[in-house]
Write a structure and sequence with these properties.
Chain A is α+β, with helices and mostly antiparallel strands. Helix content of chain A is 41%, strand content 20%. Chain A has a 5-stranded antiparallel β-sheet with strand order 6-7-8-10-9, sandwiched between helices. Chain A is elongated. The C terminus of chain A is likely disordered. Classes of the chains: A alpha+beta (316), B alpha/beta (113), C alpha/beta (114).
């Protein structure tokens, strides 16, 4: 039994629905058609399939589709010994076709309903203009989704900004950070640095934000059971928050001391655990807060204000 | 050059003075304790910012007469105690590892001339 | 410090090799440390980071402080992902067999004795 495609159910999110309603079949179909005539032998068609890597060949007469020959037909022909016969004799005639102007959602429903692997596509004049396979739908959907994602991210940023009552020129980024994942440690901070450079923030501010972010990110890697790091950049300030799921810090005042570290030898051998992380972060921040509960986790907040009278900055 | 002479020459403070004032032949600069084990010569002064009890353990293993802690890092009590127990001297400076290494090299090699 | 030193001169002084050439021909100062947090305390832009730790984290830390070049000492082997990261971040990567202690002296000489 084929698994039903999750469409028109509550599993299909609005964004995806919008896309498949907006896209037309002609946006996804293959137009480079390999066709044959009804007089052509099945052997000829079999060769055509082999050389062109297709599994279905429409039989066309006067630009109209009159039948279709699939690998199934060829297998039967080889099995029963009629491979040299003309296509006309054995081609499939009960055709389910799609129209090129239909939304892609139709095609998905058809794939759901019928067990065919491909659908010929015709235009308003009933001429054969393409073929649509599930692979075609997949490729087109992925391309559209990628494009949509970027746009959606922009909209989410606006939404968060509106909720926070900030100016509209806001970027928010959110990263998961895993325990002992040294290979990726620092990637989030690198992204923040990139954003600040694009916004032409002054070198001094970038340095402070980099230090705060990197130290907090490394702390998540070395000391926590995993967590998230969240950046918000607007015209006034840079906010860096980390939150983790444990283990929690018994005495926060102690960890803020320079030189205090609970890191083991292995971590030190990687160049970490100098015991300066939180102290460094606090030093470069305009606002700093750390809250922790044993067994629950720790959140750290660092805010760095943008200088507003510095000639190094061009805002936005 | 003896430990006390080096401290004097560089004007680095002696947080833990040596009981036996041993000869310092060269320096070893590293913040990675595990790294030091395979590589260093006896009679080296260990230049680092790792102000930690383990630093003394390493110094003692390798027969380093002294440790120089850079960047004015605070010396924890347990590190100090370990140093006294194992007769490893601790010098302290606000210079960073780079400057301290350079100065120690000069001091040791000028003296040889 | 504000004194510029050519990277080529540094390579020569420490008998080192340039494994990857980044965007800059010179550096503005030197930081020698094996601990990441220690490096992050530095304030200068465009330094040479000297380390006897050869991991990709050293490259990331160097990028965080806007370093122009990294010198790995004590003949430490450099992993491929370190070289790749240095290329990605356009930071010059140098390598020498000399010990950190000796390197500091050689570099100090170039910086301070002119």
């Amino acid at each position: 039994m084929l698994r039903a495609l999750p469409i028109g159910t509550d599993k299909a999110t609005t964004a995806v629905m919008e896309i498949i309603l907006r896209l037309k079949i002609k946006d996804a179909m293959t137009t480079d058609l390999k066709t044959a005539r009804k007089e052509d032998s099945l052997r000829f068609i079999q060769q055509l399939m082999k050389n062109s890597y297709v599994t279905g060949v429409p039989i066309v007469e006067n630009e109209r589709i009159v039948g279709i020959v699939t690998v199934n037909h060829i297998m039967n022909a080889l099995d029963k010994g009629y491979i040299h016969e003309p296509a006309e004799k054995y081609m499939g005639r009960a055709l389910v076709v799609l129209e090129d102007d239909m939304p892609l959602s139709f095609a998905i429903t058809y794939f759901n309903k019928y067990s065919y692997h491909r659908f010929p596509v015709i235009d308003k004049e009933q001429h054969l203009v393409g073929i649509l396979t599930s692979r075609d739908i997949l490729t087109t959907l992925l391309q559209e989704l990628n494009a949509e994602m970027e746009e959606l991210e922009g909209k989410i940023d606006m939404k968060i900004a509106a909720e926070r009552g900030c100016t509209l020129n806001v970027i928010t980024k959110d990263f998961a950070v895993n325990k002992f994942d040294f290979e990726n440690a620092g990637r989030a901070s690198f992204e923040l640095k990139k954003i600040l450079k694009e916004r032409k923030v002054s070198q001094k501010i970038i340095r402070r934000a980099s230090v705060a972010s990197y130290e907090l990110e490394i702390n998540l890697v070395i000391h926590s059971d995993g967590g998230r790091i969240l950046f918000t950049v607007d015209d006034n300030k840079i906010t860096i928050e980390t939150m983790d799921n444990g283990p929690g810090i018994p005495d926060v005042s102690v960890v803020l001391e320079e030189g205090y570290s609970t890191a083991n030898e292995w971590i030190r051998s990687l160049g970490f655990g100098a015991g300066m992380g939180l102290a460094n972060t606090r030093r470069v921040s305009d606002e700093f807060d750390i809250v922790s509960e044993m067994g629950k986790g720790t959140t750290v907040l660092s805010v760095i204000n943008m200088e507003d009278k510095n000639e190094d900055i061009a805002i936005g | 050059m003896k430990t006390s002479q080096l401290a004097e020459s560089l004007k680095y403070s002696l947080v833990v003075a040596p009981e036996e004032d041993r000869e310092i032949v060269t320096g070893y600069t590293s913040d990675l304790l595990s790294d030091v084990m395979g590589n260093a010569e006896e009679g080296s002064v260990f230049i680092t910012i790792q102000a930690h009890r383990n630093t003394i353990a390493v110094a003692q293993q390798l027969d380093f007469p002294a440790v120089i802690i850079c960047n004015n890092r605070p010396i924890p009590h347990d590190m100090e105690n370990a140093a006294r127990q194992n007769d490893v001297a601790i010098l302290k400076t606000e210079d960073n590892q780079f400057i301290a290494s350079y100065k120690v090299y000069l001091a040791l090699n000028t003296q040889k001339q | 410090m504000g004194r510029q030193v050519a990277i080529e001169a540094i390579a020569g002084a420490v008998s080192g090799n340039i494994l990857y050439k980044g965007d800059y021909e010179h550096v503005n100062g030197v930081v020698a440390s094996g601990l990441m947090s220690d490096v992050l305390v530095s304030e200068e832009e465009g330094i040479l980071l000297v380390s006897n730790l050869s991991t990709p984290q050293v490259v990331r830390t160097a990028d965080m402080v806007g370093a122009y070049a990294i010198l790995i000492t004590n003949g430490k082997m450099l992993s491929d992902d370190m070289k790749e990261l240095a290329e990605e971040l356009a930071i010059t990567l140098l390598h020498t067999d000399m010990s950190m202690f000796d390197v500091c002296y050689k570099l100090g000489k170039i910086l301070y004795e002119r």
